[in-house]
Amino acid sequence: MSSERSGTTGRRGRKARETRAAMARAALELARERGVAAVAVEDVAERADVSRRTFSRYFGSKEDAVLDPLRADFDRINAALAARPPGEPPVAAYLGALRAWLADPDEPGWNRREGARELLELAFSEPALAAALRRIGTAAEEESIAIVAARLGVDGDRDPHPAVAVGAGAAALLAAARIWGRHPDADLAALVERAFAALADTTTPTDPTA
Question: What is the Cα–Cα distance from 174 to 109, expressed in whole angstroms?
Fold first, then answer.
């Protein structure tokens, strides 16, 4: 009986993930076709062949649906951060988590996922999406701060170290992603490495093309 219940639960979970992914794809397709402002939640639900109520069970807004793949990526980055070796310095741990996420053979990172560059470019260029991305990113950073605080054994609400480390790491990732989104020939993994190197570099570049 327990095995039967487990199988049913597994199927329901898989169906829920498929439904969520279908709505996220529909939202992104419509945003690309029309622009976010011209897309209604009802349009997304119709494209995904679900009800308006079903959409609201999964997403709070059309922007959340468009950016859902990025939210899932932030979750994976945090999972990789929590799995880093004990004692590793926070910024190094964040970089290690990004490396693991970008190289994950099972869940490709942005650098190996079709359409990821276009999604990021859209997220940075559309004001409504940019605001939603900041909100999603802030929620992910709060989780990252809690993870780093636990690793350091400090209170993240009182000690600034976790928030500073996470803020620096997240800023480095987004800086790399902005450049990558605008330059098809760029290498995201290499840009991430350069962005983290810049955190420790106090010199001023003399060559603006370097």
Answer: 14
